[in-house]
Amino acid sequence: MPTLEASGFGDRLPTQIEQDDAKRFLNILEKSRRPSGAYTFFFREIGSHDAPAEVHLDKSLAEVLRQLLAIIAHGQAVQITPIRAELSTLQAAKALGVSRPYLIKLLERGEIPFRNVGRHRRIKAEDVFDYKRGQDAVRSKVLAEMLRDDGL
After folding, report:
1. Does residue 126 sit in the same domain as residue 100?
2. Is 132 exposed, middle or buried (0-12, 13-18, 19+ CB in 10 A)?
3. In which domain, by residue range, is 137 found?
4. I need a labelling partner for 37 at 20 to 30 A (CA). Which of 54, 57, 74, 147 fits?
5. CATH number, domain containing residue 90
6. Could you state a single Gene Ontology molecular function term (predicted)?
7. Residue 60: which region, alpha, beta or left (left: phi > 0; alpha: psi -120 to 50)?
8. Is this prediction's pTM over 0.90?
9. What is the pLDDT of residues 52-84, one digit of tens each?
10. Which of 28, 49, 73 is the last residue of a domain?
11. Are residues 132 and 93 in the same domain?
């Protein structure tokens, strides 16, 4: 499955109008939260006289939508990658926030599994995200130790 560029921004940041739209939608989302954490919306097609369609979002789906809107509202672009996708080395490097040559070194050291497709390397998105979570955990642990050592 390919990487999806969310929001139709392509290679650009959201415009001020798009940011404002995201802020409005985020505000509506926050106001429609039920005590269970789920959300209920009523949508009506523009120009339609039919009754609005009722849409329920469970807590986890609503949280993904909330995060997406918050990022766009702050003027940042978004990229969505399905977990089961296979990434090129360039896509994986972008997801990790590292250079492609550095990623290649990680692959060659066996820190992230990959497979060869002809002359190209393919990395499961799930493996990239697992590596990232591991690195984040190590970074958090080191920071906590530094703060503890400094008495903070």
Report:
1. yes
2. middle
3. 86-149
4. 74
5. 1.10.10
6. DNA binding
7. alpha
8. no
9. 888 888 888 888 888 999 999 999 888 777 777
10. 73
11. yes
